[in-house]
Design goal:
mainly alpha
Length: about 130
């Protein structure tokens, strides 16, 4: 079943808002107990932002033409450097005891930053190309 542009955009918009709402609810519950978010709340925020980006990009990415391929290629290329910066920054923050996350929280934070960076770079590049 193929979705039209408007129904595809509505689907991703609804999914994005639902994920953001769930992430906000879980974060509020976790923070009300006095703890930093466990990790999966951050992933929900990342997936929510990804869905909202896909809502914007759906009409363009549905075509799968040369422009779309260039946006994806460049977006992944630029995201690689940002992800390296995130990792180097986190290594420094760990080294100087600025942050103290467990392994699960660290992996969730890096996964969330990766998801957000990749899809926001797609949005920025779609406006450029």
């Amino acid at each position: 079943m193929e979705l039209s542009n408007k129904s595809g955009q509505r689907f991703y918009m609804g999914a994005g808002l639902l994920f953001l709402l769930n992430g906000g609810l879980f974060s509020t519950a976790t923070l009300s107990t006095g703890n930093f978010p466990v990790g999966h709340e951050l992933i929900l925020f990342g997936i929510g932002i990804m869905s909202l980006c896909l809502s914007y990009l759906y009409p363009q990415f549905k075509k799968n033409d040369e422009r779309t391929k260039k946006i994806r290629e460049r977006g992944m290329y630029y995201s690689y450097f940002f992800i390296m910066i995130y990792m180097i920054a986190m290594m420094g923050l760990y080294q100087f005891d600025v942050i103290n996350f467990n392994g699960y929280q660290t992996v969730c934070l890096l996964a969330t930053l990766t998801i957000i960076t990749v899809f926001l770079s797609f949005v920025v590049l779609s406006k450029r190309y």
